[in-house]
Amino acid sequence: MESKEVLSLIKNLEESKTNNETVLDILKKLEKEVVPTEKLLRETKVGVEVNKFKKSSNPEIVKLVRKIISAWKDAINKSKLKARQQQAAAQDAASGNSTNGSAHSDNKSDGNKDNSSLPSHNGTSDTDSSSVKKQSKFQSSKTRNAKNDGVNTIIYNIKLRDNVIKALYDALAKDSEHPPNHILQIAIEVEKEMNKLNNVVSHESQYKEKYRVIYSNIISRNNPDLKVKITNGDITPHFLVTCDAKELAPESLKKALEEIREKNLFNAQGATIERSVTDRFQCGKCKERKVSYYQLQTRSADEPLTTFCTCEVCGNRWKFS
User: Fold this and answer.
1) Residues 138-165: pLDDT tens digits?
2) How does pLDDT run across 249-272, given as a tens digit for each residue?
3) Cα 170 from Cα 143, distance rounded (Å)
4) CA distances (Å), 301 to each of 291, 294, 297, 304, 306, in order?
5) pLDDT grade, residue 73 (50/70/90)?
6) Rounded CA gap, 174 and 231, in Å?
7) Where are the beta strands (DSSP E) in the chain?
């Protein structure tokens, strides 16, 4: 859909703002036909106009507006991320070509060197380029974080979500040798799963609580392997967000917790009161003499034990000292 058509729909939207059915029809048309780009949104300000209906008294309109705005933001962010990744790939390729030039020069001076070890014409070896990129090491003389790595973590222009992405990036990047774009992608995906589980608009407190659990586990000195597993892809963002917090604990802590659980279970079983069945007592209700009992010291030590009885026939209970 071109800008002129979008502007025409916006005009109709403003003129029909009191007619819920017309508003819904226009919003559905915008959702279906608009392909969001930064240029289109900036020129038409369609996002601003659509967002005005978020306070509508009609819940169907509110729901549709939120869906449209969220979809457009995701599309713009994906476009930005793709552009950054292409730029990083171009820089990597340029760096690879520079290395290839020196390698070619060295090979020319020594005709006995094996050409199979040289990179191919596109700057990569016969190995899959994505695998090489993942294995490449990123080194920095400064402490790694979003600022020092030159990474833009403003993705959604929503303060809380962008702050979470930045915090996750800083935590995952510290002491890591993965390239910035790889870590940023993981931070974005983790936050996206968090927002999918607990939408920041409607469940902000749950969203924050989930973030605290994940972040505290990532930065824990007692669990250094966790962020390595996350950045290596051994733990997926979906699992990280949806699993029980105990599953993120280090193996040593898991083992200790299991030992404590088994010990508590044993102690609980050991403390179970033993009951004896006898015919010495008669049930006052059904007059049967099949009675189980146990004794406890419920008063001072110089007082006799209290006997608790249960009729095994009718279930009647009584006690005496």
Assistant:
1) 888 889 999 999 999 999 999 999 999 9
2) 777 777 777 777 766 665 554 445
3) 10
4) 26, 17, 7, 8, 12
5) confident
6) 11
7) 276-278, 291-296, 306-311, 317-320
Q: What is the pTM of this model?
A: 0.44
List the one residue out of 176, 187, 167, 183 whose CA is nearest residue 144.
Answer: 176
Question: Which of 19, 17, 81 lies closest to 52 in space, CA to CA?
Answer: 17
Q: What angle do CA 211, 214, 219 make, to 5 degrees?
A: 115
Alpha-carbon span 126 to 235, nearest angstrom: 28
| Sign of the CA dihedral with 219 first, then 222, 226, and 227 last | positive
Rounded to 5 degrees, what angle do the CA atoms 11, 12, 17 make? 105
CB 320 within 8 A of CB 308: no
CA 139: distance to chain centroid? Answer: 27
> What distance in Å separates the CA atoms of residue 268 and residue 217, rounded to the nearest whole number?
31
Alpha helices in 127-236 (DSSP H): 129-135, 146-149, 159-173, 180-197, 204-219, 225-232
| Residues contacting residue 165 through CB under 8 Å, at least 6 positions apart | 153, 155, 184, 187, 188, 191
SS (H, E, C) 165-182: HHHHHHHHHCCCCCCHHH
Please compute, for residue 197, the number of CA atoms within 13 A of its CA located in the half-sphere on the CB side. 20
Both tokens assigned to 89: 């790939």
Closest listed residue to residue 241, CA positions, set 265, 266, 210:
210
Residue 242 has pLDDT above 60, yes or no: yes
**Residue 102 CA to its chain's centroid (Å):** 44
Amino acid identity of residue 222, one-letter, is N
Residue 318's identity, in one-letter code, is W
